[in-house]
Here is the input.
Amino acid sequence: MLHRYAVPLAIFGALALAPLLGFGAGHSLSLLARAMILGLGALGLSVLVGGAGLVSLGHAASFGIGAYAVVMLDAAGQTNAGVVFPVAVLAAAVFALLTGAVAIRTAGVNFIMITLAFGQMAFFTAASLSAYGGDDGYTLYARTRLFGTKLLENRWFFHYLLLALLVLAWAAGRRLLASRFGRVLRAARENPLRVQALGFSPYPYQLLAYTLAGALGGLAGALLANATEFVAPSFIAWQRSGDLLFMVILGGLGQLHGAVLGALAFVLLEEYLAELTPHWRLIFGPLLVLVALYLKGGLLGLVQRRG
Amino acid sequence: MVEPLLELRGLTKAFGALKVTQDVSLSVLPGEIHAVIGPNGAGKTTLVHQVSGTLAPDAGSIHFAGRDVTRLPLARRARLGLARSFQITAVLPGFSVLENAALAVQARSGSSFRFWRAAATEAALNNAALEALAQVGLANRAETLAGDLSHGERRQLELAIALAMQPRLLLLDEPLAGAGPEETERLVGILAGLKARYGILLVEHDMAAVFALADRISVLVYGQVIATGTPAEIRANAEVRAAYLGEDH
Here is the structure.
């Protein structure tokens, strides 16, 4: 039996050492940054899907709102991280609160469809923002400034900042799910009627979880805008929501570090296959199908069966 | 005259042309077991749904602890002290036995909008949960996953969850359903032990158990209460024998 922290320690340890072990070049660091940022968003989604049983197919909207917050503030001349990140997080949280208030009244397939619809609304809104490049997107000429410095432009600093945020979000998510609040969420996933019969109304718990996941998505989106120095409506496309959902399932739903593992595997696989052949999607697609069919419990399940 | 804990007055519910509950009036006194029996399709489950709050009646009223709860949802009624058990066990299979009961304790002890402390380490929750488990004889299974329990044990856990809510009234929907003879004997023993501490509305198929436990029995046939009385009165009632006891048992 593996120690319960063995797998998360291995994942985070590998990320901490990667720049020192030959992955310190610009391209590798960009790739890892992308994986960690998507991992951050997937963590929030994992709390929703694995914890609360809310399968959202619109999670990329929170990414997009966080990213567009950076863009809009940049266009207005505001690049101070002390303003940009709180605004990005808050905007995504408010969006999640408003859309969640409607979506959480539904369940199952309807919930999936409504979150998808809200995501598409955000997508088309972004595409119509001609002041911010519309379909073509918007290039950021400088990253957000941290305490007036250009620290975020430093790839090593950015790498370890992302890692720290990832570990923090993971630890906070774990605590959240183990708390009284999380217990109600998990119970409502297993049997909402039972939870109501005990005297809980699941709705406010689920709405708060949805809002928190949205806020984390907003943070990830703002970081993604900084990592790529470019923002486009494709950040919000439903395919991105699907990717995030897949990362969560690929890694394993039961535990939060599964989402991080899933995001890493997804990004690295995508990259590796793209190097092999320009027709990489022909391999990637069936691979995803096989994983969904045969890898019950995701990659974590695989690791734990071995362990 | 003791104030009834639960009082149904003229409860009526129809699904289209099918009247599943017709002018049902009955009451449960504190410390009393009032059983509702009736053949399949008599509308017992629909009645349970209306009393617990998952289904709204078309007409009539439900008073609980002196308060009109006819329009209150399930969760609100639960907070007032009306605990229901489910005919098809609704324990949380992915939770341990202890956590199943602890969640019920959590529902009545302070806010659950607490985000930091691990709920599993709250001694107050766990102790009260263990107490409820001990009452139904499940304390030694506290760490087992509820999904791994036997059917009879799940029925016991279902009871423990209701008890952990420290309710005023237990609404038990066929608590013996699917239990074997030995399990039934044990569950009847547990129910007999609970009597007098709670008002219990017992909807049950098992005649022997009902006649052994109940203070009063109401017989439901085609949505109507055709008789209410002590077990002896019900046994002697010709109409009941004709409608129900005679043909089925």
